[in-house]
Design brief:
The chain is α+β, with helices and mostly antiparallel strands. The chain is 32% helix and 39% strand. Strands 1, 2, 3, 4, 5, 6, 7 and 8 form an 8-stranded mixed beta sheet that branches. Helix 2 (57-74) runs antiparallel to helix 3. The longest helix is centred in the middle third of the chain and has 18 residues, at 57-74.
Length: 142
C-alpha cells in the first residue's frame, strides 16, 4: 500500500521531483495536478494563520488506498500519486497534492477531479484552523 500521509506541508521540491520522475515514462501523454493550499480565511474578524491536520493514520491510509484502487478501476491511468499533510501547514502552503497520469488528457483530468472529491468526502483527516491570535476551531470541509 502506497503511503499518502506525510508530516508537514507538501513542498514545491516534492511536487517538482514527482513531475521530473515521470519524464522517463514515455507512454504517458497527459498529467493532471490538484494542489490544495491553506487559505488565510477571515472568520469573525480573525485570520487563519495555519491549519493543523490530524487523523488516525491507519484508517486514513486505508481509505486513501481504496480511493486509489477505485480510480485505477474507473479510469485508464498510468500513474497516480496522493500526498496529504498532517501536522501544521501555514497559510499559503500546500496540504494536498494529487497527481494523475494517463495516455490522454481527459482520463487524467477526470480521474484527478474524482479523486479530490472522494478524498473530501471519505478520508478521515481533520483540520483545526489556527488563527493569528493563537485561538483555534475545527474546520468544516466544503
Amino acid at each position: 500500500m502506497k503511503k499518502s500521509i506525510f508530516q508537514g506541508p507538501v513542498t514545491p521540491q516534492k511536487i517538482a521531483d514527482s513531475i521530473a520522475h515521470h519524464q522517463v515514462k514515455t507512454n504517458i501523454g497527459a498529467h493532471d495536478i490538484f494542489l490544495g493550499q491553506v487559505r488565510a480565511d477571515e472568520k469573525d474578524s480573525k485570520k487563519v494563520a495555519a491549519i493543523e491536520y490530524s487523523c488516525y493514520e491507519e484508517m486514513a491510509e486505508k481509505v486513501f488506498h481504496e480511493i486509489r484502487e477505485a480510480a485505477f478501476e474507473k479510469f485508464d491511468l498510468t500513474c497516480l500519486h496522493i500526498y496529504h499533510s498532517i501536522g501544521l501547514v501555514k497559510a499559503g502552503e500546500i496540504c494536498l497534492f494529487v497527481f494523475t497520469s494517463s495516455r490522454h488528457r481527459k482520463m487524467a483530468m477526470d480521474a484527478c477531479r474524482f479523486i479530490v472529491e472522494e478524498i473530501k468526502l471519505k478520508v478521515p483527516v481533520f483540520g483545526k484552523e489556527i488563527f493569528e491570535d493563537n485561538t483555534h476551531q475545527w474546520k468544516i470541509n466544503n
